[in-house]
Each structure stands twice: as C-alpha cells, then as structure tokens.
Specification:
Layout lengths: L4 E12 L3 E12 L3 E5 L6 H8 L7 E6 L2 E2 L5 H11 E5 L10 H6 L9 H14 L15 H13 L5 E5 L7 H16 L3 E5 L3 H5 L3 E6 L2 E5 L12
Parallel strand pairs: 3-8, 3-9, 6-7, 7-8
Antiparallel strand pairs: 1-2, 1-4, 4-5, 9-10
Helix pairs in contact: 4-5, 5-6
The structure holds adenosine-5'-triphosphate (ATP) and magnesium ion.
Organism: Streptomyces albipurpureus
GO molecular function, one term: ATP binding
Keywords: ATP-binding, Nucleotide-binding, Transport
C-alpha cells in the first residue's frame, strides 16, 4: 500500500506587495515516512514554502493539504489544533525562550495539546532524554551550547509526536560535529516514522538524504523523486 500523503501542495503561489513572487506555482507531494532535503539559492522561496507547509503562512493561490486536511477550509482554532497535533518546527536560530530552562522550553511544545503542566514537564524530560540531554534539564538557553540548544529545539518539536517535522537550516548555525548530531537525530526520528522536510545549504547533508527538491526563483526545478509527472519540473 502506498503511504498516505502528508503534504500536498498544488499550484501554490505566494506573492508579496511590491511584486515579489516568492512562490510561483509549486506542486509537491510528500508521503508519510519520507525525509526530504530542500535546497536552492538564497531568496529562492525555500523558507516561504516551509512556512506554507507548516500553516504558519497562507499561499496567495493554490491549495495546501496537510495530513489530508485542506488548510484553507479550517477555522483558526482547527488550524491551531492541526498544527499542535501534526507539525513540529525547528529553526536555524533555535527560537528558545530565554530565561526558561530546557524542560520548560520543551514543555511549551505541548501548550496547545490540552495536557496539565505536570504531564507536559514529564513528557518534556522524556523528549530531552531522546535527544540525549538528560544532564541539561535545568539549563537555560544561555547555559547551553549551540548544538545543545538545537537539540532542545528538536525535543520541543518532537514532544507532541508530530506527523511532520519541518526544519529550516537546523545545522546552519552549528559546527560540523554538532550538525552531525542534529542530522543523526533527524534520521532516528524519521526511522521511527516521522515525515521530515529539511532546508539545507550544506550539499553534503543534502546528498545524504533520500530525496532532494531544488528551488530556483520560486519554483521547483528538480526533484530526485517526483511523485507525479506534473511535479517533474525543470523541463
Ligand atoms: N514578508 C515578506 N515580505 C516581502 N517579501 C518577502 C517576505 N518574506 C520573504 N520575502 C521574499 O521572498 C523571497 C523568498 O524568500 P525565502 O525566505 O523563502 O527564501 P529562502 O530560499 O528561504 O532564502 P535563504 O536561503 O536566504 O533563507 C525573497 O525574495 C524574499 O525577499
Ligand atoms: Mg530561508
């Protein structure tokens, strides 16, 4: 049986006032269990697409289906619920709350999951153990290295057991060794069933991932594993 599509973008465009066309008609299907590298020059639309996939941003035209839901049909509260249940984010610069320890930063990943603070903290400790940070529970971001901060961010993203993990240059601010640990964690998560899209400027990392989607000027210009002929861009 073919795994279900987790992400379906159809003719997705994103324009900004002043004539910026960040996405110019993107078609992309990502199935459950995939691990996809998104590559392309600066300004080509990678982050824009990730935000659209993550329902942080709406496309100007076109459709976005996540886990089978057409996101344009959902109310704000249903959309927040979809995000809380299905999507985890990791960013280049971690986006952790200063002054809050690792456990509480991760527990915040469950804020909209409807569980008690006590339960959130218990699950946060488990998630931190998964990224091998059990010795850093009470450290605040300023007491963590860059690589450790990114592992806290990954723990926050995975604590809700998301269907889909979206990572925007998760190794971009890290040294090679820390970057490798982060990529190992993403591979482990993927092996346990999480679908992952990761934007990277690192050609070695991209080459090590099973599928590569390349952007240029707001369009997909190549896809190492297109699902439908219409997605075979770059002709
Ligand atoms: N809020 C915004 N308002 C106007 N233009 C925007 C906005 N966000 C992004 N853009 C423009 O959209 C285009 C695509 O930006 P995007 O951030 O998706 O690129 P990117 O591929 O992620 O680049 P990088 O590799 O530098 O992160 C760029 O030209 C950018 O200037
Ligand atoms: Mg970007």
């Amino acid at each position: 049986m073919t795994p279900a599509p987790v992400i379906e973008l159809r003719d997705a465009t994103k324009s900004y006032p002043g004539g910026v066309h960040a996405l110019r008609g993107v078609n992309l299907t990502v199935h459950q269990g995939e691990l996809v590298a998104v590559v392309g020059p600066s300004g080509s639309g990678k982050s824009t697409m990730l935000h659209v996939m993550g329902t942080l941003d709406k496309p100007t035209t076109g459709t976005v289906r996540i886990a089978g839901y057409d996101v344009s049909q959902l109310s704000d509260s249903r959309l927040s619920a979809l995000r809380a249940r299905h999507i985890g984010f990791v960013f280049q610069h971690f986006h952790l709350a200063a002054g809050r320890d690792a456990v509480d930063n991760v527990a915040d990943g469950l804020l909209y999951a409807g569980v008690s603070l006590r339960e959130r903290r218990t699950r946060a400790r488990e998630a931190l153990a998964k990224v091998r940070l059990e010795h850093r529970y009470s450290h605040t971001p300023s007491e963590l290295s860059g690589g450790e901060k990114q592992r806290v961010a990954i723990a926050r993203a995975l604590v809700g057991d998301p269907t889909l993990l979206l990572a925007d240059e998760p190794t971009g601010a890290l040294d090679t060794a820390s970057g490798e640990i982060v990529m190992e964690l993403l591979h482990e998560l993927n092996a346990s069933g999480t679908t992952i899209c990761v934007i990277t400027h690192d050609s070695e990392i991209a080459a090590s991932l099973p599928r590569r989607v390349r952007f240029k000027d707001g369009e997909i210009v190549s896809d190492s594993r297109p699902i439908f002929p219409t997605e075979e861009a770059g002709s």
